[in-house]
Design goal:
alpha/beta; 7-stranded mixed β-sheet; 6-stranded parallel β-sheet; 18 strands
Length: 365
Amino acid sequence: MPLTVDAVVVKDKNAPAAIEQIIIPDPGPGEVVVDVLTCGVCQTDQHFQQGEVGDNFPYLLGHEATGRVSQIGQGVTSVAVGDKVILNWRAVCGECRACRKGEQKYCFDTHNATQKMTLTDGTELEAALGIGAFAEKTLVAAGQCTVIDDIPETANAAVGLLGCGIMAGIGSVLNTAAVKRGESVAVIGVGGVGTAAVVGAKLAGATTIIAVDIDDRKLEQAEKLGATHTINSQQSDPVEAIREHTGGFGADVVIDAVGRPETYRQAFYARDLAGRVVLVGVPDPSLTIELPMIDLFGRGGALKSSWYGDCLPSRDFPMLVNLYQQGRLDLDAFVTERTTLDKVQEAFDTMNRGDVLRTVVELTA
């Protein structure tokens, strides 16, 4: 029988994120209903609110979540009722041209639930990133669930962040840049994703890890989590400062976790010859950049973008959870604030002020 639950919905561009009652249908073939336990407040949700992802309003927000499977549809064998899971937005199809080439990290047809959740008047909702986890329950494809049954309840908020931002940052270093032991890494913009990239650089064995930001609070946090050097780019030229910390050459890898023309230009020129630039910060679609073609040719190396940290959730989530359990990955440090479902709009404001790495909504399921 369909269920009515509370959820955070934005009905029009720039409208407030507000509590609405929504209808969760019974799961169909390949679908599951998940009781949401925690959901991080991510910048991407605000991009949906502001119409920067699309205009298919109303949107059901939230995607960085843990939950417990409460119903399964026909043919579902990968999860069972009662399983605790991290939700993901890359449920690979196994059939598209990327998957057939063995590049599942680029899957071009990732699975989402076939049915739509709706408002009580029947209006169909577009679930953010196919998840919609600012809700007491949500309907997803079974492949969007990665089982983590051995995690205590107290860890739900931390491990749920692997569902988006932390995975994006760590994956940009471990997967996209493929940082090697002894290399140097600079990260421009150390909010939640950028700080996760700093952590990823430490995990990879980078010996020089440079954090760049305009906020000394963020730089201090990045230093606590592994940065060997910090640069306030309002006080000094970040390109020259990165070179100073790397023998005058530039970093082997520079991660742009902001996604603006000025930060990308900094990343491009702050890398060593044949170095790698990785763009993980999601740019506004209206932004453009110009670079001299002779510099594109002459500096060599690689310019890459990192989609979701080029991750495979079934591979990477358990590995990172295991590192967390070993005490080698401090996910708890990213949970700055805990709040409730009715405070999501306020959490966006806190995020925009730069006061948190992550606010996490906690629900009782």
